[in-house]
Amino acid sequence: MSRSASSGGRSPAASAKPLVRVVRSPRRRKTVTAYREGDTVVVLLPSRMTKREEAHWVTTMLQRLEQRERRRQPPGDQELERRARLLAARYLDGAVEPRSVRWVSNMRNRYGSCTPDGKTIRLSDRIAPYPAWVRDYVLVHELAHLAVPNHSAAFWRLVARYPLAERARGFLIAKGLEDGDGDG
Hints:
- This protein is of the alpha/beta class.
- It has 2 domains: 11-72, no CATH class; 77-175, 2-Layer Sandwich (Zincin-like), CATH 3.30.2010.10.
- The chain is 42% helix and 18% strand.
- The strands form 2 sheets. Strands 1-3-2 form a 3-stranded mixed beta sheet, with helices on one face. Strands 4-6-5 form a 3-stranded mixed beta sheet.
């Protein structure tokens, strides 16, 4: 009876919970883990847990997984453009102002591109899950192209104003997105 009472009062959003598969293990002693496998959330827990503890941990792990995924979600185009304007003001003395900044999914070999004449910047959605400071570097790199459309010493001096530029380049090199001469 309590089951029908609790499910009858659910909102459509609450009933949209993902499928959950619980895997109990006698080898697992204390830890509980959750991860996505397609549309299913797999929750790993010790076999000694009671059904009540299981229900508690499934709810807790679903919340944690949702929070983790929300933190990792990249900013939308509007937020990306706002961020680009802020970085241009902070590191390039407001000397450049992009007309548009957006994510694209058709970039396979580059992490960003810019059209200086149109003042447009496009970032590959492949870098969306990377840390914010790496995305900021790519934005500063592309913003610098609005002022200097090549990879001259003047261009690199502008990019170097971003304090995490070298660290971000190292990150991209490690990920295999940055080529040796810095084309971008």
